[in-house]
Specification:
51% of the residues lie in helices and 10% in strands. The protein is an alpha/beta fold. It folds into two domains: 222 residues, 2-enoyl-CoA Hydratase, Chain A, domain 1; 100 residues, Up-down Bundle (Acyl-CoA Binding Protein), CATH 1.20.80. The chain has a six-stranded mixed beta sheet with strand order 1-2-3-4-6-9, sandwiched between helices. The chain has a three-stranded mixed beta sheet with strand order 5-7-8. Helix 8 links the parallel strand 2 and strand 3. Helix 11 packs across helix 12. It is elongated and about 85 Å long. 38% of the residues are buried. Bound molecules: coenzyme A. The site of coenzyme A has 15 residues, from loops.
Length: 391
C-alpha cells in the first residue's frame, strides 16, 4: 500500500465507499494564494495526519486520492477487480480526480488536514465528563482494540452479584452498546466467573417490607435481563471459572460462550426454592432439548465445561492454562471485522425472537417475585447465610 495514508485506509467498510465516491472532485474552492502550498506544507500536513485521531473512512479515502494525485498525477494504474473492495475504492477515488493539477491536489490535501486538525483541537475543549467512563465499584470496564471488557470484580465473594452490581452491569451494558467498540465481553476476576445472585441481597430491608422488596428486585431482574436481550452488538462470555445461577441462565442470550476447562455450570434453583430466570426457561430447552434443560433447571445438575459444550451452551472449551491467551488472540482478530456488518448479522439472527424473549423475561420475573416470598426460598437462604455458624 503506497503513501502515508495507506496505513489508515486499510480498514475499509463498503458502506462508506458508496458515499465517498459521490463526492465530486472533493469540493476544491481554491484562491490564487491558497494554490501555493509548498512541498514543506505538504510534508507537514502528512506528519500532522499521523497525530490526528481516526477521521473515518470517507475522509481517509479523500486524503489517499489527493496524496496520489499530488505525488503521481492522474490515476495511471489498472482498475482492480470488483471483489478487491479496498483497492477498488481507492482506485475509484483517485480516478475521480481526473486531470486535477498536482499543485491543486497538494493544496487540497493541506487544507483538508488543517480542517481536521482544528476540529480535533476544538473537540479537546469538550467538558471532561462527556468522554469519561462512569466509575464502577463492582466492575472493571475497559475498552481497547475495539473490545469493551466488562469484568465482574468481587473475587473474594466469587463475584456474587449484589444489587449494586446489577445496577452497574446495566449501566456498563448500556454504555458499551453505544461506544465505538466492535464487540463486548463479560468475564469474572479471580477463580470464579460468578456465584450468581448475592444471597445477602435477600437480607436488605426496604420501608415497604418483603413484598415491596420482592417487587423492586423483580423489576431490577427484568431490566438486567432486558439489557442482554436488546444488546445490539456481538456479546461474548469468557467463563473463566465456575458459574452458578443467573450468570449461567443468561448465557443463552450471548452470541458466543468461551469457557476454561475449570468452568462448571450450575443452576440450583429448586435447592433454593426458586425458579429459572435469564430467559433460560425458553433458551435452554431450545439449545439442549427439553430433558437436558430439565436436568439443569429443575434438578440442578451441574455440568462440566465439556458437557456444557456438548450440549451447545458453550461454544468452545480451552485448557485453563492457555484460556486467556487463546481467547484474546481470537477476539482481537474478530474485533477487526467490519463492525456494522457484525451488528447487522446479529440483528438478523436475533431480532425475530426479541419479542418472545421479552415476554419470557417478564413471566420469569413475575414468578420469581412470588418465589422469593415463599417459605422454601426463605429457608434455603437462611441455611446458606448461617452455614458457617453451623460448622
Ligand atoms: N452470595 C453471597 N455470598 C457469596 C455467594 C453468594 N452467591 N457466593 C459466595 N459468597 C461468599 C461466601 O459467603 C464467602 O464469604 P465469606 O468469605 O465472607 O464467608 C465467600 O464468598 C467465599 O465463598 P465460600 O463459600 O467460602 O467459597 P467456597 O469455595 O467454599 O464455595 C460457592 C463457593 C460458590 C460454591 C459457595 O459460596 C456457594 O454455594 N455460594 C452460593 C451460590 C448460590 O447459591 N448462588 C445463587 C444461585 S441462584
Amino acid at each position: 500500500m503506497a503513501g502515508p495514508v495507506g496505513r489508515v485506509v486499510r480498514r475499509w467498510y463498503p458502506k462508506a465507499l458508496s458515499s465517498s465516491l459521490q463526492v465530486p472532485a472533493f469540493q476544491l474552492h481554491m484562491s490564487e494564494t491558497a494554490m501555493r502550498a509548498s512541498q514543506k506544507d505538504f510534508e507537514h500536513a502528512m506528519n500532522q495526519m499521523k497525530q490526528l485521531k481516526d477521521p473515518g473512512n470517507e475522509v481517509k479515502l479523500k486524503l489517499y486520492a489527493l496524496y496520489k494525485q499530488a505525488t503521481e498525477g492522474p490515476c495511471n494504474t489498472p482498475k482492480p477487480g470488483v471483489f478487491d473492495l479496498i483497492s477498488k475504492a481507492k482506485w475509484d477515488a483517485w480516478n475521480a480526480l481526473g486531470s486535477l493539477p498536482k499543485e491543486t491536489a497538494r493544496q487540497s490535501y493541506v487544507d483538508l488536514v488543517s480542517g481536521l486538525s482544528s476540529s480535533s483541537d476544538s473537540s479537546q475543549v469538550k467538558p471532561e465528563a462527556d468522554s469519561k467512563q462512569p466509575e464502577y465499584e463492582t466492575l472493571v470496564v475497559t475498552s481497547e482494540d475495539g473490545i469493551t471488557k466488562i469484568m465482574m470484580n468481587r473475587p473474594d465473594k466469587k463475584n456474587a452479584i449484589t444489587i449494586k452490581m446489577y445496577g452497574e452491569m446495566i449501566l456498563a451494558l448500556k454504555s458499551a452498546s453505544k461506544d465505538d467498540s466492535a464487540i463486548t465481553v463479560l468475564t469474572g476476576n479471580g477463580d470464579y466467573y460468578s456465584s450468581g445472585n448475592d444471597l445477602t441481597n435477600f437480607t436488605d430491608t426496604v420501608p415497604g417490607g418483603l413484598e415491596e422488596k420482592a417487587k423492586n428486585d423483580a423489576i431490577l431482574l427484568r431490566n438486567f435481563v432486558g439489557c442482554f436481550i436488546d444488546f445490539p452488538k456481538p456479546l461474548i462470555a469468557l467463563v473463566n471459572g465456575p458459574a452458578v445461577g443467573i450468570p449461567v441462565t443468561i448465557l443463552g442470550l450471548f452470541d458466543i460462550v468461551y469457557a476454561s476447562d475449570r468452568a462448571t455450570f450450575h443452576t440450583p434453583f429448586s435447592h433454593l426454592g426458586q425458579s429459572p430466570e435469564g430467559c433460560s426457561s425458553y433458551t435452554f430447552p431450545k439449545i439442549m432439548g427439553p430433558s437436558k434443560a430439565a436436568e439443569m433447571l429443575i434438578f440442578g445438575k451441574k455440568l462440566t465445561a465439556a458437557e456444557a459444550c456438548a450440549q451447545g451452551l458453550v461454544t468452545e472449551v480451552f485448557p485453563d492454562s492457555t484460556f486467556q491467551k487463546e481467547v484474546w488472540t481470537r477476539l482481537k482478530a474478530y474485533s477487526k471485522l467490519p463492525p456494522n456488518a457484525m451488528r447487522i448479522s446479529k440483528q438478523v439472527i436475533r431480532n425475530g425472537e426479541k419479542e418472545k424473549l421479552h415476554a419470557v423475561n417478564a413471566e420469569e420475573s413475575r414468578i420469581l417475585q412470588e418465589r422469593w416470598l415463599s417459605d422454601e426460598c426463605m429457608n434455603a437462604i437462611m441455611n446458606f447465610l448461617t452455614r458457617k455458624a453451623k460448622l
